[in-house]
Hints:
alpha/beta, single chain, Protein-Tyrosine Phosphatase, Chain A, six-stranded mixed beta sheet, Rossmann fold, disordered N terminus, UDP-N-acetylmuramoyl-L-alanine:D-glutamate ligase
Amino acid sequence: MNTKTQNNNSGKRLVILGGGESGAGTAILGVKEGFEVFVSDKGKIKEKYKSVFEELKIDWEEEQHTEAKILNAEVVMKSPGIPETVSIVKQLVAKGIPVISEIEFAAAFTSAKIIGITGSNGKTTTTKFVHHILKSAGIKAGMAGNVGDSFAKQVAETTPDWFVLELSSFQLDGIKDFRPDISVLTNITPDHLDRYEHKLENYVFSKFRIAENQTEKDFFIYDLDNEIITRWLEKNPVKAQKLPFSLQQKVENGSYIENQNIIVNIKNNQFNMPTTKLGLQGKHNTKNAMAAATVSQLLRIRKETIRESMESFQGVEHRLEKVLKINNVQYINDSKATNVNATFYALESMESETIWIVGGVDKGNVYDDLLPLVNEKVKAIICLGVDNQKLMQNFGNCVDTMVETQSMKEAVRMAYSLAEKGNSVLLSPACASFDLFENYEDRGRQFKEAVRNL
């Protein structure tokens, strides 16, 4: 458990790199805890965050990093979007100034217990799932990290008993003492390798940092079916008590499937529920549900409450979200699929002939795993990106129709003209969105708007 830091921070210089959600939240908490705060952003800062800095009466700058104002910091909070390789960060590290993430900074100022959730896919759904169950059980719980208001802002303004945190590998890269009471690792597939020298082991190491400070009193929940995870654990044991979940094998402590029932067993205390009753269907969602149910069992939440919560949970915007049915064609928004593995789950869950909208900024994708699914389920491919060459090379022989488009409106109109009764139109890009959109949310909203305007 994280205990509130007792040392006096009055007048200590806190420099915040990045004036977005985590930067603004850290500024609020920093001022509250007596730090002298300075915010610096290489890009433009959104008006809503500028007004926060003005209200706090702190010094800030945009479109530049003034070295003299940064290199005199006693501690630096770096936003997750800024790579460690940028010049100013390298200079700070060379001077021995601690560069930490918002998660590390804020955890020191809360006495709430923490559930930390990471993974290449499923972390948002699992985070919202766990939070939904805790709320239904009447537990005072905050949800932060990659979702909702920033963790630091919530630490400054609220006092929950538990925090459920969705953590990216970038946020975990900036921790030193951060220690969740319960950690969840949903899965690991190659992603963001451009930030990890294109080495999978660097990325895996980052994900496992979620458990590095855990002790024998803590719990580590993970996907036993994921080879990357199990191979890593063989060589790098974790101290926390391990609670695996698996679709393929029975486990003594943890969660497994038997006769289409989810079974969670922790020290002979058993919970079960038919998979058919889950509000979210699909193998990957069953795993997310198993992880959430394992957390809930650890917290000794009433079994009836867990069952009801798992039946009522409806998932996450931009993740296999059914938008509309037009002329008996189902349009599905899976914009959150920013890597190949997420798109694999999406295609696997398709039960009708599919027109697949794909493309964006490729993070070193290998598309081989998708080929059997594309051959089986996809009748046409619509590329949506600035550079679609790799997609054309990989899938050109799989389908009769493959077209390139440069806007969401154009992609959706093309899908509409190609779709026949009973088909599905699936936006599942397998790529980042930054070439044509602000982020995956913007991409998903543009898709939904284009569908509604058909």
